[in-house]
């Protein structure tokens, strides 16, 4: 067998027992095709304290569990020496953990060895792989493989979009597939007589034939990545369950192995040689925000397209079409596949997943996982500094870390408000003040030469990793911006901003409230001092939030004068922090404030029904390419739990406020339109079920009442946790379908119009003219 070396990208990873030893298996995509690489004779490992070794050996010997202990030169954060416990395979590994659980403290025992193998070699997505090669059908197999990090390799991956249609009980109707060059729907049934059947429909007599046709299609199309909408939690779960019920091995892997669906804290789909990526999870991880992540909503917002079935009782219509109009169902099924494919392409979601894997080492399909990403990046560095990661909560501290600094706002209507933003404030604090898990331990050992933190925290000036990691990410992001690699820049930004969140998460093994507090309280200090510095220049700060400072500039200043003054303020603030960090801490400042936005007109509302200003809610007018544009933050117009009429009214009433127009005329026009029934299509509420209908007991919100009534009237309707309930308020209460119910127009006026009006300065006169002396409570 010939030795070969390939540049590749890791698609999937797994660990198996092979002849009584641990074997690692990695599927890779290379320019030469797909590779299945085997690494033999690995030993899974965890750590225990040196003082616990005799007891651990005794317990393992009693259970006849074969392990070996080795001194690897690592210690705990409390400085006690640690011992590595090696096992022959995953079976003995799990037996050893079970035998020691609750008796001997184990460390890093939750890390899969197939992850640790890559982590310790700093392999993040891209690899050089070498081994003995053997050609297989559809892929190359490498044995005795060796892997080395490849920093720059980016794969070209083939993508297939998959979507199923089924009954409420999971009985399959059809499966849609769409790729760049192929479209098809496998449909149960026969071509309807007298109608032309589209060539993309492949007919199957029953569910078994449907599944076999799917296996054949996947084999022929041979995708690297399968995408879909809720495809992991729903589509593949249903496919696997139906195959199991029918006694069919659902073979979708490149090596003719069946699919493996794991259900634990989350659903995991394993298809050898392929990756399954969900569109919803990827959008959320790329920090896209939508009022709803339903495919219909995202497709309309991103593509300007709609699904072919839009009504609330979608499942009923799918069942009807399967029984009466299979051609329409096939078109609907295929359209969903095409929409997902187009969304991935338009937003470069696969590129984002690849870049994220290259930055963190996480699997392509792994969504969320900020803690896992931090562990991947930090743990190998920690080991090289002689430490084992601690277990959760071993520091014994239980006080809460404060959140970001939010200044009391000064409500009102303003001209010329400049917003100054600290660029990546929390990462910059980490970098400037040497905040780091290991640095905390080293700093507490030698506090006399450490950087002081908060809550008795001290941080080593030299023994740390996180500040360096932040610096490397910042430099990489700058390079990405210069290269106009927007996807890489966005991925780096997300990772940098997650670092504080991870250190502040009690689910992270490195969580310590002294770490999180030394970031947020330093942020409080920076924001308060920056405010004082700006006000010393004779200007007014009307609001501040986490890393943003809102500065009121004189009304009579021109736009160019305001922008010039904002730039001057930036220089003053940045110079101050450079001097302050050097003089007070002997540190180099990486704090950098920027001029972000100038609001030509700005409105900060009061808390509804109170005189004090609200927080995280405002609207401002900017000049964008010579045109005025309103920017809403936290207001009803950007919230999903308000009706469209409320959003439109707020847009128009704010525009009227800014332009000095008559608020009474605008408001009365909306009220008259509502009472006349002219805007019924804008009165629909939309809210998702947070749990099953029967679980709402103490309080029953309107959308739950509407859903229960709908199910009562139609037993076949399936409304479960996660379902979006669209409903109206009527004289008979909340309902999903109006039918013979009359809309309660006064409800919408009092609950959707008046509350927004009451945020406007001097609203009382307008409200009085609209209502006379009627009394309303909000």
TrEMBL record:
Keyword field: DNA replication, DNA-binding, DNA-directed DNA polymerase, Nucleotidyltransferase, Transferase
- The DNA-directed DNA polymerase family B exonuclease domain is annotated at 105-298
- What Pfam families does the record tag this protein with? DNA_pol_B (PF00136), DNA_pol_B_exo1 (PF03104)
Q: Which InterPro entries match?
A: DNA-dir_DNA_pol_B (IPR006172), DNA-dir_DNA_pol_B_CS (IPR017964), DNA-dir_DNA_pol_B_exonuc (IPR006133), DNA-dir_DNA_pol_B_multi_dom (IPR006134), DNA/RNA_pol_sf (IPR043502), DNA_pol_B_thumb (IPR042087), DNA_pol_palm_dom_sf (IPR023211), DNA_pol_type-B (IPR050240)
Molecular functions per Gene Ontology: 3'-5'-DNA exonuclease activity; DNA binding; DNA-directed DNA polymerase activity; nucleotide binding
Give the GO terms filed under biological process for this record.
DNA replication proofreading; SOS response
Its catalytic activity?
Answer: DNA(n) + a 2'-deoxyribonucleoside 5'-triphosphate = DNA(n+1) + diphosphate
Where does the record place the DNA-directed DNA polymerase family B multifunctional domain?
A: 378-752
Enzyme Commission number(s) from the entry: 2.7.7.7
Q: Which family does it belong to?
A: Belongs to the DNA polymerase type-B family.
| Listed name of the protein | DNA polymerase
